[in-house]
Amino acid sequence: MLLQFKDPLKLKTKRVVYEETYYARDSGTLEQLKELSTKRQAIEESINGSSKITPAIAREMAGGVTSPVLQDLQKLERYLPLLENLVTCVEAKKDNPQIIKWTIDLSIRWTSPMSGFSGNRLTGPRYFRLDDLRFELAMVFFLYGGLLRELALEVLPTDMVESATLFRRAAGVFQHLAETVLPPLQPMLPPDRCPEATVSMASIMSIVCLAEAQAVTVRRAEEKATSGGLLAKLHYGVVQFLEEAATLLRAHIGDWNDVSDKLRRYMSICSVLHESRSQRFIAAEYTKIERFGVAVGVLQYSLSRVQQVRPTSDDTWKIAFRQEQDALQNMLRKCDNENDFIWREKIPRKDELPVLEGLKIVASIAYQPFGLDREFIFVT
């Protein structure tokens, strides 16, 4: 079972109307601004849950697509190239004080599900505002990555190859966000900043997506009856990805006032889960060569690690760990009995256990900009 962490998708935003803020000098520019507003409104209504369109009409508008996640991806991919083009044009005129004023008047506001506090029932969601059009672009890219991750989970039961590809695409989107979109924005971030607008969080999410892609890949390898030794390395490769993300999180803790504790727990819990699965395959390999004492030692250590974890946030997390704990206990009982009654091999100490080796075999799929090139002519 693949654990799920859907918080990056839980963004909300306030309305933005471009043609009421940027003054167009010709009809072509006005139409482009109106198109931007229309495309953004479709996204606003979807993520804010305020759309009045029925599922049947939404399906028809999406060309027969029934998945709400895929429908939202279609909407975003219609808006994103227009927004990228506008950002390019506005930044080319950044020395014009009138353009700067109009951008401030847009009042771009987004929530931050990756922060430690996202609001409450009395005050509603907490919105962050940053008076720069690149902030809008950054948050849209973060949403894009979140939607790709969600679609990957949606198709996982029926198509693991496509699921892994979607996770890799999401990794590429977050990588593009970290390397290209966000760096120019960093000097303008206020002390009270949302994690989604920081290079470090985008980098962390890119690595998390790679860990998820590898988790799907190793699940497929299990179904194809790949050798236990290789499966152990692939599972530990997931652990290595997650440890890399966790190290980055610790190193950049000063980038935010607070960050979601659920993200920390997700990385930690996934890491323990895949480490345990790696050790189960290692133990199985030792039983094949009748080294039952080593198998027992590996399983005992793994069980002690799993029993320390208390997943409380998500029922699917609890189920996954209950299943893993049961599998470990059953395997340990069989190996222990076999060793006691037949082999009587010494059980090694913790520092004598086999060293885990990892193999990382997935890479991100680079985001390809849409390359839209339209001119905006403003009244200045």
From TrEMBL:
This is BRO1 domain-containing protein. InterPro entries: BRO1_dom, BRO1_sf, BROX. SMART domains: BRO1 (SM01041). Residues 1-380 form the BRO1 domain. It comes from Sphagnum troendelagicum. It comes from the Eukaryota. Belongs to the BROX family.
